[in-house]
Fold:
Amino acid sequence: MDTGHALATLSALSQETRLETFRLLVKTAPDGLPAGEIGKKLGVVQNTMSAHLSVLERCGLITSRRLGRSIEYTADFTHIRALLLFLMQDCCRGAPEVCAPLFELVSCNSPEGH
Structure:
């Protein structure tokens, strides 16, 4: 991940509805949710929700797939892991073992991770 992409991702998450949307999709992973259900759960009208989902998808935090007449969204854990690695890549003056617990926590293989 480069600096520009990291900034776009952080910018997308800096808005409350988008952050809540991403966190909701993380909670429901690996299953996705239809756009309408996301909007209902967060109390956001359809056109506004659609705009927020577009921002999250453009920066790579979520993916979508069409299921009949609806679109289902899922969190993209590969992208969020790449962001975390970008933020932590030069951690701890060359002592990566200091950050190892964080990386283990966000690993899909850990009991707490997805």
